[in-house]
């Protein structure tokens, strides 16, 4: 199956974060067949460091769907409960550096457009799973990873090639559990990538900047219900606590040190007009240009949540359901990516860094590699997009896929050969 | 089918407000078979004055359920869309006053207890419709109405007997549409009733007092969504508007003129942590000891809703989804009820008025009858209850059912005969 | 000086709570000259149980004013710092019960009307101290107390007569410090009184009901100031904490057990538009028909204050600046008062209890006497008032003054003679 | 009097915005004595475009103080009510461009440090007007203006020299009224300046950037007072409206287009704990990196104020009490300033633009000149400061004063001679 077919098969079978059973099963099988040593599930993830797991019923339904779709049961069992990460290594013929590439596999909870002009409809590869859609290009990322794996299996090199397939990038939920398992602790060079964003086809950026550190939280307020007419004073009103938290979180100060964001995106509570509401659930996020400011901001948000609850006699449980850090790409590696790209005819415009202005949990991989003395970058590969990322009509120009495989081969060969001492 | 069997059949087939298709169908058939002239649907209700209709899908499912259960299709069609009120009249042999009795038919959205000691379980008549339950005794009310109708069909009297079977009492949603259709405009004497409350078995109250006027509202806030990191200023945040409304509604002043209540019982809004929420829905109520104070309070609540929306650039649609008024029972009729009860051996304790301390939309019937010169009361018939009203273990002592039929026959015979000029 | 002259002298020299130096000095001298044993200052008050002391500069200014006005310096020194309570006893010729009468002496911070038709202007006894005014009748209370003291000094009786002159009744600030010093611990019968309220001239009520328990608090929020443009995140915003407390205090639930009240009456904070405000001061009160509910409510208010502060990184100091309890007047004593009044020709209408619907710290005296087995009441003496209490045009009809002295003599003679075992 | 004596005299007599009577009187007299044609008062200001006038009592007190200090009464009368702006022109011997310099004269409401090491104390020129202080260097600006005026009176040149002495720069209150009177409508080159900021002595910046547009507002809420226990529902609570406005203003969204600020710096309302507060006053500001965003933000703030008031039945009057715009300095003029400075030995470090990161109403002059085709800049003259601007220990190194006069002479001679066509 060529890279285009592969990407279209993945596009037709989108799986949201921590339910990528069919996708990850396929990744395992392809990598094995190309001679890689493959690990997955609890061998490459710390289960409790995953963030924002879907309800177990949703995970189980996706599991069954993958099984019915023919996935290998032994592999599936190793991923049961949402342990859908995969790591593969290929050893070269001589000692040398470890060079890793990281790809994300998850789709979004979006209903794909039924417009007949939307290319996946016109060409018969639109989502078969209603309510899930590859609207951010991760189908392309995974396809690149597999085609690149195959290409490298035919190459001779020194050192170790490591391929990381991460679940649940959306919402910043999957990277931390792989990083904490140590999957990049031996990595000398790490290349992360993203298709599109707002770079045009034929452009490439060696790195990215302006990552926003981000934390996503779920807060659950618990009070006491009571009849709103008969005994309102016996209640402890969860919505009063939640509403005052919401206002005060938005009222947190602007920071002079750079841009920040806060948003309470979801609030749900109560059951009936004549009952003092005893529960309320809030989903929210904060972001900042600096990791430290984001931590400060998160701490202030948590303080407001807890005291807003306490002041109405409520308890408040707070869970981190997503996270991303900031990162600075290494100059040496950005240059190496661009130098490699200049040898690929396809690429004609070259940029040192492109501003992301958003959040990415690849930053946890990047920071870990750098902390241990390695180099890392986050390269952006321009492509024409039919609509903005996360839009029901999102689509990519597939020309970028084989070009990226070519580029990654070149990067791999440079880092694995010339850089080995 | 005797009154106990009848009540148990109704208990096993509970239908929430405006979905009483099976119940109302049965009421129509029973009344017709006893010689009553029966009207229903749009002939006895102004459709647009109904409050808080369930979603049409829920109404349609109940409709199909009743059809599958063998309900008469012609009758069902006349009630399509939730027009489940029924009015029956029986003319006496001579001219005379019109005497009406009003019964409510709806169940509650409560999952009935599965405790084996709960009588409906022990005796095999627990709810067959999961999530719906007669937890307020309206099954008993309807059974009394039908047994009383049958008993009266064998009697001779002057004047007109009128029986009103009202849907959707819970939440104050059904009475107004029947009153506005004029179904009590010709009524000289109106008897409304309720089983239980906190009167013990063998006690009876001729009337009730301390009705709380009440209004239930649904407010929908509409704003503009936007990416919470990329362009928060482009959003118009529906949850900010809703949260500030919630706090300010609860902060409305206490009234020196008597007790008031406000409660925002439900708030739901937003979709994801990284999206500025563009919609929020709020369900709330206000109450007061006086109708006028409740109107003042409702006006203040609406003012807060609208300005809370406007201050964040939102629109706010407000719908009244339930209403109840206050009422004062007529002394003459309270005495008549008690005098009649004293002839029934079953009743041993007699009370002029029992405080309700809650809301009832029978008050709209009572006020209308009184406005046009008639007399009305709301009598309470004591019975042992297994758990509080609206509790999953609620049950009544069925002894009160035949005793009430006897009482109503006596009241009817007095008012229809001796009171005719 | 007769009682009318006395009252007019007091009216012309009004002194607000804890600054009644001139008034109390005069009370001491008059009582001594009538043979009473007189205590004052720290001998009759626990200094730290006084509530809501004015600033020491204000106390000192009033002190100097009294000194310049000729007050006795030795007496003044015993009252320095606002210890302006006075207690006097007169022993009878035989053992017997202790019968106490309590009078309050303080004025209000109100600018008296300059309207020429206002009687104190027309008759030349309007306030000489601008911004202070006897607008609640306490000048009359004190005058009654002194005239009554003189009358009793000529009588023979058994037991002990005790006269209590309390400072700072307004705001519920003075009683507690005298009660806690034990000044009524030996009292068998206690008569408290108030002129006017809404009883007409010639009417008298033996007791009062519907006292509202009340607590008045001052909360001071302390944060950190910062330049609002240069470094807003370095501030800790006292007004954000105070504003969220204000909203949430008003949003506390209504109580089904009876009427409650909350009010944040004053909020002041911040210095300039471009400075994050580091301080805010809030003055507020809560009230309830029951002492226990008021305590519950006060606790909820304090919880909200503390957590509203904590959630914005502030501290909050809370001080009780006023208090009143509820009380129930003794039936026996109410009857005795009315029986006595029936012998005074002046009184023609008699009422068992008059509802106060307000707060009074005489309740602390009443509760203490009752706890120790004595009897107490709070009698209301009707008089025509020119404008409502606390209004700049308030004035009383002075006819009530000598009539009340006559009544109190009769009550004293009954309780001191016939009631002694 | 040399420039140092002059500055020290001004420092000892600080006058806050719109009360600069003594200062402006002195400016008029000095300029006249040097042959300038001088206008002031309503001839150079539109009275109603002044922002944030102090209370008239404060203005009048300052007026009397200046009169007692020997100011010319005719001049004073032309400035009565706070019309303290002055404009002077000196015509050259031939036609040519109009070159203007703008100086601000106002002090701050700060109590100057009494520390003996504070130079103005050590040298006997500390503020004689308690509570007012030159803590921002405007005394230096005015002294420079007068010494420069004198120097230029001895020079020959073509064109017109125009000197603008502006009142009330602090808070952005004075510039607009002079701009709207047209005082810079004929200006070809405009030089504004500021001492210190954070540039060291011997440094100079040709221009400034990062001006924050700013609006300062005063909002007055008016409701209805009522007794908080007797009739809370009759009140319309001004503090409830103000507190909800405060929270919601701080909760306005961050803007993706650049930094913004909001701050409610002052809130004051209410009179007593037992009175529903009927008035509240709020002083607040908003700022943004762009003039348009600040206008958007101001509009949102106003919307929140009005709807927060309306939702509690209040009215809200909003007054603009201060304003500043953004501005971009002209490249040509920045270069000219630096080129001139390079000829003055005193200056050794040269900077094209220094970021202000604050607000300045000189921006209104700059924008007006540029709109009409002229060039303008805002130059910063480094000096050692003893403490930050607006601090009670602020002081400048006076060496910068004569150096700046030298620089301005050079700039004036270049622009007035060589630039005339």
Q: Which two chains form the greatest contact, residue counts included?
A: A-B, 44 and 44 residues
> Could you state the CATH homologous superfamily of the largest domain in chain A?
Zn peptidases
- CATH fold node name of the largest domain in chain A: Aminopeptidase
Structural class of chain A: alpha/beta
- Note the main sheet of chain A: 8 strands, mixed
CATH architecture grouping of the largest domain in chain A: 3-Layer(aba) Sandwich
The CATH C-level name of the largest domain in chain A is Alpha Beta
Number of strands of chain A: 12
Alpha plus pi helix count of chain A: 12
Helix content, binned percent of chain A: 25-40%
Radius of gyration over C-alpha positions of chain A, nearest whole angstrom:
23 Å
Please mark out the parts of chain A with pLDDT under 50 across 5 or more consecutive residues, or reply none. none
What does the model show?
Chains A, B, C, D: Residues 220-309 form the Peptidase M20 dimerisation domain. Chains A, B, C, D: It comes from Alicyclobacillus fastidiosus. Chains A, B, C, D: This is Amidohydrolase. Four copies of one chain form a homotetramer. With 421 residues, chain A is an alpha/beta fold. Chain A folds into two domains: 3-209 and 325-420, 3-Layer(aba) Sandwich (Aminopeptidase); 213-324, Alpha-Beta Plaits (2-Layer Sandwich). The first copy, chain A, is built from twelve helices and twelve strands. The first copy, chain A, has helices at 3-12, 21-33, 56-68, 73-79, 119-122, 138-153, 175-179, 238-250, 291-310, 331-341, 362-371, 400-418, and strands at 37-40, 86-91, 94-104, 158-166, 189-195, 203-211, 213-222, 260-270, 279-288, 315-324, 349-358, 375-381. An eight-stranded mixed beta sheet of chain A has the order 1-2-4-3-5-12-6-11, with helices on both faces. A four-stranded antiparallel beta sheet of chain A has the order 8-9-7-10. In chain A, a hairpin with an 8-residue loop joins strand 8 (260-270) and strand 9. The radius of gyration of chain A is 23 Å and the shape is globular. Chains in contact: A-B, A-C, A-D, B-C, B-D, C-D. The interface between A and B is large, with 44 and 44 residues. Strand 8 of chain A pairs antiparallel with strand 8 of chain B.
């Amino acid at each position: 199956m060529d890279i285009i077919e592969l990407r279209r098969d993945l596009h037709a079978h989108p799986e949201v974060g921590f339910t990528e059973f069919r996708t990850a099963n396929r990744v395992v099988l392809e990598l094995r067949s190309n001679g890689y040593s493959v690990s997955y599930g609890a061998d490459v993830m710390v289960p409790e460091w995953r963030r924002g797991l879907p309800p177990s019923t949703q995970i189980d339904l996706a599991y069954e769907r993958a099984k019915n779709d023919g996935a290998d049961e032994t592999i599936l069992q190793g991923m049961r409960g949402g342990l859908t990460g995969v790591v593969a290594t290929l050893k070269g013929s001589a000692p040398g550096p470890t060079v890793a590439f990281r790809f994300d596999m998850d789709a979004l909870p979006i209903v794909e457009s039924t417009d007949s002009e939307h290319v996946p409809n016109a060409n018969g590869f639109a989502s078969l799973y209603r309510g899930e859609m590859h609207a951010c290009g991760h189908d392309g990322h995974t396809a690149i990873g597999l085609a690149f794996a195959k290409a490298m299996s035919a190459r001779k090199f020194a050192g170790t090639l490591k391929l990381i397939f991460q679940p649940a990038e959306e919402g910043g939920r999957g990277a931390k559990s792989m990083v904490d398992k140590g999957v990049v602790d031996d990595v000398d060079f790490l290349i992360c990538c993203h298709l599109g964003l707002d770079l045009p086809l034929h452009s490439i950026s060696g790195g990215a900047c302006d990552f926003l550190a981000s934390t996503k939280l779920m807060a659950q307020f618990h009070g006491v219900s009571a009849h709103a007419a008969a005994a309102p004073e016996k209640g402890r009103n969860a919505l009063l606590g939640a509403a005052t938290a919401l206002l005060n979180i938005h009222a947190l100060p602007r920071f002079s040190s750079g841009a920040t964001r806060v948003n309470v995106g979801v609030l749900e509570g109560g059951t009936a007009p004549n009952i003092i509401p005893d529960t309320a659930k809030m989903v929210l996020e904060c972001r900042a240009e600096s990791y430290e400011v984001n931590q400060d901001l998160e701490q202030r948000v948590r303080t407001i949540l807890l005291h807003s609850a306490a002041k109405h006699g409520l308890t408040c449980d707070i869970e981190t359901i997503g996270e991303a850090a900031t990162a600075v790409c290494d100059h040496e590696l950005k240059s190496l990516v661009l130098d490699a790209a200049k040898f690929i005819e396809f690429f004609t415009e070259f940029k040192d860094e492109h501003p992301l202005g958003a959040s990415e949990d690849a930053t946890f991989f990047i920071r870990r590699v750098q902390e241990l003395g390695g180099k890392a970058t986050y390269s952006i590969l321009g492509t024409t997009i039919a609509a903005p990322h996360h839009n029901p009509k999102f689509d990519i120009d597939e020309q970028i896929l084989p070009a990226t495989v070519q580029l990654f081969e070149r990067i791999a060969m440079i880092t694995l050969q010339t850089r080995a001492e």
